[in-house]
Amino acid sequence: MEKTFFFLYSGLMTLLYILFLPILFFFSFQAKYKHAIPARFFLWRNRPLKAEGIWFHVCSFGEAKAIQPLVDALPAEKLRMSTTTHTGYEVISSYTSQSRYLPFEPLLFRWLKPQKVLVVMEAEFWYLLFALAQKRGAKTLLINARMSERSFPKYQRLGWLYREIFKHIDEVYAQTQKDKERLESLGARHVVVTGNIKLSTLPQPTKVWVKPSGFMVCGASTHEGEEALIVEAFLALKKERVDAKLMVVPRHPERFDKVSNMVERYAKEEGLTWHRFSQHSHFESDIIVVDALGELVNLYAISDMVILGGAFEPIGGHNAAEAAQFGCKIISGKHYFNQTDIFNAIEGIAIVEKSNLRRRLLQYGQLKPTKIKYRTDIAPIVKSLNDVL
Length: 389
Prior knowledge:
By secondary structure, the protein is of the alpha/beta class.
């Protein structure tokens, strides 16, 4: 059955790849995909990783940042990295020159070299990635694994697929006991609960900005629909606290221009000042659109209040611990289902319906500074990796 599935799946993915080639070629000319699509689907300037290394595969910017404690614990010459996103690539390429975009599955047959270990972060369930890596000698690990209550039914409907995937995963390190139980029901073996590695070592500021006078509000990692919500809540606060300033930090770079145009309209209507951080790296305006990557932790360090995006819309939330380490007051929406364990580890986060954001922000004086109650131990993962060196 396993061999039959392997050949059927490989054939299906190859067929889909061929059928979608014209569409992929068209999208490869768009600015958002001009690096990722040529590399992933046409192997353009995407040489194979050197063999016999420790290969980490991550997806997003946040995941790439989160593996740094593991990266720091391993020999630099053994590091191999891959990702599927441009923002993820910018981070992993700072760890090692052996950093690549992960090719689409059928292309892995000719691209993938034997490695000592494959370490995949969270929910990147690529069947051929695990199967081929294992068949070519790698120990395979899934770390920071999660399975939210919201997404679990979707995985159950494809349980036959995930049971095949988990046959090729040697060890799983889950965020919570609930995640462990759900993953095991899908066929995961050797599952250990280690907690969320994003709580093990938090990113520290790379620059020290002087905190301006006034009440600093940071609208962090925002998505479509959240910026307007946050700006409107801030405008109400501004009427009560004239010294309040707002920093808006969109999650995705391709939205910087759109968010800047929206903020400009609000600022003109209200007679407020604003600017783009990429043009003027100061905090003197009433509203600052932070259109730069890698600044968020630096901004948390000078923030009094953080309105954390990704949870006012059903997106799943973002890592609140990065702001909580500075004792910031934090307001979040209710849709933080991908960050439940991190939110549970933090004391003082105010969870609100988006219709109540304005009212809750105006009650800023009643909110408590946040505090991280406990951290995560990554020692079992480090030991597993060192065992193969």
